[in-house]
Every structure is written in C-alpha cells, then in structure tokens.
Design goal:
The chain is α/β, with parallel strands linked by helices and about 325 residues long. It is about 45% helix and about 15% strand. The mean pLDDT is about 95.
C-alpha cells in the first residue's frame, strides 16, 4: 500500500506503533507514532491529510483475548473515522474483508450485495470485521466520504508476520502439509489489492463496497500450483471435516490451558471457515474502478520467492 502510494507520487504519513518496522526501511515516509486504541494519537496522525487509508487490523484466527481484537478492529475503526471526520479528510478508504460479506458457500460466488448477517460470521476476526464495516458504512451515511474495499485472500511479497494465509504457504514449503482439508479461496496478488485501494480513493462511490479479488480456486488446486512452482509434492490425502474439527478443539484446549503463550497450529475458526468455499465475484471493482489483475500463479511465485529470500524456510 505504501509503495503504491509513493509510486503514484504521493506524500505519505504512516501510523505505526513501531517506527523501525522492516517494511518501512528505506521508504521516504513520515511516521506518526500511534495506536488504534489511542484516540489522541489518531487525531494527530490525520491532521493535514487529504486521504486516509485504514488498512490496519488485528488478524488472528485464534484469539485468547477477544476483547482486545474488538477494541482494535471495531472501536479502533470508530476512533480513526471520528478523527478523520473532525480533521475534514476528503476521502477515507476502509479495508474490510470478503469474510464480512455474504457467501452462498456452495461454490456460487458471493457479491457485495449477497445477503448476510452477524450470525453468519465464523470466529471473532470475522465478527469484528463485520461490525467494523458497519461502523464505516454508518460514518458514510452521516456524511464522511468513506469507500469500503473487501480484499479476498491477498498473496505475494512483504508478508512479514506472516498472515494465516502466508503461514499456510510457509508450512507447505517447509514440508509440513502432508494432508489437507478441502475448501475454496479467492486469491489475488497483494499488489493488485494495493492498486485497488488507490482506485477506490479515486473512483469509488461513497458508501459503496468493492470486492478486490481474482481467481476462485479449491485448496487442492492451490497446492497443485504451489507444487509446480516449488518443485515439492502437493499433499494427496484429503481429510474428513468432523475429525479435523474435533482435533482443532483439542489443540485449542491444550494451548489455552497448558501452553498459553503459544498459538495452536490448527484452530477451530480455520476449520469451521473451511466448510464454506469462499468464492467471490470481482465484477464491480473491475467494471467501475478499472481494477486490472495479475495472474494468481504469479502471485504465488512472488510469495514463494519472497519467503525464500527472507529465510522463512
């Protein structure tokens, strides 16, 4: 996102808790120290800004401390948008997720208009992002020029932490994926997602949502493609849903009661999410924002190269 803005000739101020974050090394940006839980720091950060891109979130599929996630994702969004409104920001792009959208789950792609409710959200991350999206849309209705983008599953370089998706790729490349639970995902190159944010700021309609996604692929198709790219064998054993869900409950119980500082490798939320094929339709972003897309194979190649170059394997 930052490099896309700089490439477009923009002056960029980054809100960050850590000014020494490796992703910012060597970039000509102003760093504003702050936190989504600290309203005064947000007010200082947005002063003088014409546009605000709210891309920050607590993205975890296992949450031993749910109130913290809601404070960051929901109330943090409320604090930041209130600060943007008070500062007279000209445009806000809020980064939601396709996880907050309706999804038939039967392989039919969901759209921005597919009916959905809070009760359909699986896990605290999706619930918190659904509620945060409603906060953003409420601000739009009250007059703040907010556009919402819903990225699908971004893949590519600079996944420092890594995200749950990036960790799945790392596990595959390290040979830790002997079997899999079939599901479906919509993959998109992370650089296309960044460009989609800029396009939303330029062309998006206030109060509207835009899916930033590309190809709908089953997990077995993704692993097959990763195998061709990496030279490794794709897992061939497809696991049944219910025993894996039971194992996930046991893994989380162990982590919570006997290893509280560790993160379980198998989570209940991830398994429950796998029951629905998360396929989505990007027509609106392509048609109205002019979003162009990089082949998903290239996204996976870039991710593999980046993880290898940065010693994740």
């Amino acid at each position: 996102m930052v490099t896309a803005l700089l490439a477009a000739g923009e002056q960029v101020r980054v809100l960050a808790r850590n000014s020494d974050h490796p992703a910012l090394a060597g970039l000509e940006v102003e760093v504003a120290a702050g936190d989504l839980r600290d309203a005064p720091s947000l007010e200082r950060a947005v002063q003088g800004c014409a546009r605000v891109f709210h891309v920050a979130a607590d993205y975890r599929l296992w949450v031993p401390d749910p109130p913290v996630m809601y404070d960051i994702n929901v109330e943090g969004t409320r604090r930041l948008l209130a600060a943007a409104a008070a500062a007279g920001v000209e445009r806000v792009v809020y980064t939601s997720t396709v996880g907050a959208l309706g999804n038939p789950g039967d392989g039919t792609p969901g759209t921005e208009e597919t009916p959905v409710s809070l009760g359909e959200m699986v896990g605290h991350y999706k619930r918190s992002k659904f509620l945060a999206e409603q906060v953003a849309l409420d601000f739009a209705r009250q007059g703040l020029p907010v556009v919402v983008v819903n990225p699908s599953t971004p893949v590519g370089p600079w996944d420092w932490r890594p995200t749950p998706t990036g960790q799945m790729l790392v596990d595959f490349l390290k040979g830790r994926m002997p079997a899999y639970l079939e599901t479906g995902l919509n993959l998109v190159h992370v650089q296309d997602v960044a460009r989609g944010h800029l396009l939303a700021a330029q062309k998006g309609r206030v109060g509207e949502k835009y899916i930033l996604g590309n190809d709908n692929l089953s997990l077995s198709q993704i692993f097959q493609m990763l195998g061709e790219i990496s030279g490794l064998s794709a897992p061939r054993v497809k696991l049944p849903y219910w025993p894996v869900l039971g194992l996930a409950y046991a893994t989380e119980f162990w982590a919570k009661h006997f290893s509280p500082r560790s993160t379980p490798r198998l989570t209940v939320t991830a398994v429950r999410m796998a029951k629905k094929f998360m396929y989505f339709d990007n027509t609106k972003a392509v048609k109205y924002l002019g979003l162009t897309l990089t082949p998903v194979r290239r996204a996976l190649e870039d991710a593999v190269d980046w993880f290898r170059e940065h010693d994740y394997l």
